[in-house]
Amino acid sequence: MTTTSFMNSLPSPASSITALDTIATSPLPSGELSEDARAQLQGELDHIRQSVLDTQLAYNTTHASIPTYQQLVLTTHAQVAAAKQAVLKAKGISSSNASSTSNSASPSNASSPPSPSSPLGEQQQASLRELEQEHIELGLRLSQVLRDKAEAEETKKRLNDYMLKAKSRIKELEQRLRE
User: Engineering a disulfide at 152: which of 1, 13, 99, 124 sits with its beta carbon 3.0 to 4.6 angstroms away?
Assistant: First the structure.
């Protein structure tokens, strides 16, 4: 599966929150409840309960997508690194000279600048440009995946915050309706 089709199979983080209702924070009526007031509170309670069920579903979907985004980040990062190595190879630069994470601590690798082994022909330059373009596109895709993952994490947090407020309001309403 390609990175693009993999990403398209994930839920959009933004689609998880259509429009979270604001939790009513108006004070509950005190004293004896009229039938009308009781019906109004029961309606609010039913609405919030349904909203919590919908929000829980969105939360679960978002929560489940985060490890998938993380795996996609790792996969795309590896593709970016491989594309970078392909560019360096096409330029005739050995990866041990160009890599900052080289296992060798030899001074010759650290002090000698990487240099192409031979000038590139026209076809090789065209191939190099394609490799560089692929590297750039993969880097952009990685950036997008990282943004999507961060958005999913933020969406999950917002959904959780909403559910906490909603559950608190549910307790208030249930207590008041029992009185």
Answer: 13
Please, how many CA atoms are within 13 Å of residue 49, restricted to the half-sphere of its CB?
11
Q: For the segment 64-107, what is each residue's pLDDT rounded down to a tens digit? A: 999 999 999 999 999 999 999 999 998 887 555 545 444 444 44
Query: Closest by alpha carbon to 55, among 151, 163, 164?
Result: 163
Helix (H, G, I), strand (E, B) or coil at 129: helix
Q: Helices 122-178 and 35-90 sit at what angle, rounded to 10 degrees?
A: 160
Cα 35 versus chain centre, distance: 47
Q: Which residue's entry shows tokens 């993969």? A: 138
**Residue environment code for 60-82, b if the CB has 16+ CB neighbours within 10 A, otherwise e:** ebbbebbebbeebeeebeebbee
This prediction has a pTM of 0.69
Burial (0-12, 13-18, 19+ Cβ within 10 Å), 55: buried
Q: How many CB atoms lie within 10 A of CB 155?
A: 24
H helices of the chain, in order, are: 3-8, 35-90, 95-98, 107-111, 122-178
Q: Number of C-alpha atoms within 13 angstroms, CB side, residue 32?
A: 2
Tens digits of per-residue pLDDT, 2-15? 445 545 555 554 44
